[in-house]
Task: inverse folding
């Protein structure tokens, strides 16, 4: 089996690639930079890559035998408040996915975001009404709705997988655990953070990749799915566990930063893809 993958050189994408390969599936990766993809040091004979962007014109044979796609590519993160998500990202994303369906892709798995739920608190279920208030979340939610309308005209399966908080190898330098890791490596004695009592849903990137691949290979219907642990943890506990695990000595300066104004104080997901297989 071959699966088309976008965003394969990104944080989550590289782990999705490894998960596909582990299951005997050959990823065909559409990437803007083949050299960046090869720098991940995966066995090149186990995947195919096509250098191009959303405007790429596929040649005869490149999509032969491919009827599934995992679509992770999205530019401009983590700048959630920037209008380019709506003004520049949304429509090229829609037209690319529409083109791929016209070229024979019958099943599409797309990464959404928990920010589509807006400021809802508590346990978030995938059947809840979305109320995005950030340009990034609004663009993602709009893309899903556009594709749902397209399904009325063209037959294809859509699995919309809403990601919560992902951590692990390759994560963005702006994430709290990356910043903490850097502070520890630098020998800092103090780590500045918020009060840390916010409740969040964190999942290791390997598990996120597993659930994304499960959605691609094991599901056979259209649907919206939360990709999450279902187990809320406070930011403080997350940070403290990381310090203990790494046997580090660093003092936490809680309350130095204010809470993010674009997230509810306490929320987590009701998992839909956990233990799917």
Result:
């Amino acid at each position: 089996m071959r699966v088309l993958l976008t965003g394969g050189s990104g944080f989550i994408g590289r782990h999705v690639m490894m998960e596909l390969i582990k299951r005997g599936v050959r990823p065909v990766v559409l990437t803007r930079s083949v050299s960046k993809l090869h720098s991940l040091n995966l066995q090149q004979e186990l995947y195919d890559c096509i250098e191009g962007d959303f405007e790429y014109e596929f040649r005869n044979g490149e999509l032969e035998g491919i009827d599934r796609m995992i679509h992770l590519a999205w530019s401009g993160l983590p700048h959630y408040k920037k209008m380019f998500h709506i003004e520049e990202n949304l429509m090229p994303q829609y037209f690319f996915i529409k083109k791929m369906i016209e070229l024979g892709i019958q099943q599409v798995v797309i990464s959404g975001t928990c920010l589509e739920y807006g400021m809802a608190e508590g346990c978030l279920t995938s059947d809840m009404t979305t109320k995005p208030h950030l340009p990034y979340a609004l663009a993602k939610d709009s893309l899903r709705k556009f594709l749902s309308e397209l399904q009325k005209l063209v037959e294809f399966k859509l699995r919309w997988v809403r990601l919560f908080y992902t951590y692990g190898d390759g994560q963005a330098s702006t994430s709290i655990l990356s910043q903490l890791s850097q502070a520890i490596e630098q020998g800092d004695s103090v780590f500045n953070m918020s009060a840390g009592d916010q409740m969040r849903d964190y999942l290791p990137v390997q598990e996120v990749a597993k659930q994304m691949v499960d959605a691609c290979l094991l599901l056979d219907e259209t649907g919206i799915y939360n990709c999450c642990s279902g187990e809320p943890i406070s930011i403080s506990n997350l940070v403290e566990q990381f310090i203990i695990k790494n046997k580090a000595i660093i003092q936490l300066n809680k309350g130095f930063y204010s809470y993010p104004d674009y997230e509810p104080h306490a929320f987590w997901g009701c998992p839909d893809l956990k233990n799917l297989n």
Observations:
- Residues 172-199+232-264 form one domain.
- The two ends are 18 Å apart (CA to CA).
- Helices lie at 11-22, 34-38, 84-102, 135-150, 176-185, 205-217, 235-245.
- The chain has two domains: 2-166+202-231, 172-199+232-264.
